[in-house]
Write a structure and sequence with these properties.
Blueprint lengths: L1 H8 L3 H54 L17 E3 L4 E6 L9 E11 L2 E10 L7 E7 L2 E8 L5 E2 L11 E8 L5 E8 L11 H11 L4
Antiparallel strand pairs: 1-2, 2-3, 3-4, 4-5, 6-7, 6-8, 8-9
Length: 217
């Protein structure tokens, strides 16, 4: 009688195998679900980190551009030569140098896509104004990137190039995009603070500057 109860209360080999199979399926499903969720979560973190990085870079570019100075090398010359070279893929301008003593003065700054070693990168190049050598190139972000600029004058109409030698653009639109891991794009607009050379602020020079650079200022 005791032996019969023991046999009826246990598992048969088939029942044990079925239970093991069900447990395997259950844990396999949980593993797949957890792995997918973790990958999605990691992707969200990566995208958020990239968006934060791009936002910081765009803020830096906007700050640089908004500090651009319309340098006229010879205010008394009949030749106008305000320095601002803007194309669809790069921009070069003059801004006050960031520093003290030996670093005080003006810098030529260029933003473009180039190579940092063997990697494609967004590069900020800097050198002392009017220097023919030296300076530095700082890669701000690496990867499969595309950088695009467009420029607007007082009329607010954006164009892919800025060719004026008499004034700076009023607005510069910056677009930075990439294709990895998924296509993405972020943009910002810089509103330049100054559009004509500093010497035009003097009362005796204002009328001559308005005549020379145009009354649209």
């Amino acid at each position: 009688m005791t032996g019969r109860r023991s046999t009826q209360g246990g598992f048969t080999l088939i029942e044990a195998l079925a239970s093991l199979l069900l447990a395997t399926i259950l844990f396999g499903g949980l593993s797949m679900y957890t792995g997918t969720w973790v990958r999605h979560w990691q992707g969200m973190i990566d995208r958020g980190g990239r968006e934060d990085t791009v936002a910081v870079i765009l803020d830096r570019m906007v700050e640089d551009l908004e500090s651009a100075q319309p340098i006229d090398p010879d205010p008394n010359s009949a030749i106008i030569a305000v320095r601002f070279d803007g194309s669809a893929e790069s921009v070069t301008f003059v801004r006050p140098a960031l520093g003290y003593q030996a670093r005080a003065g003006l810098d030529d700054v260029t933003y473009s896509i180039g190579l940092a070693g063997s990697d494609r990168a967004l590069i900020r190049a800097r050198r002392d104004h009017l220097a023919t050598s030296g300076g530095e190139e700082l890669p701000l972000m690496r990867g499969d990137l595309k950088l695009s600029f467009s420029y607007a004058g007082p009329d607010g109409e954006f164009n892919p190039e800025w060719t004026s030698t008499t004034r700076l653009p009023s607005l510069v639109r910056i677009e930075l995009s990439g294709s990895s891991p998924r296509p993405w794009e972020q943009s910002a607009i810089a509103r330049l603070r100054v559009e004509m050379p500093a010497h035009c602020g003097a009362g005796e020079a204002l009328a001559r500057c308005l005549q020379r650079y145009g009354s649209s200022f």
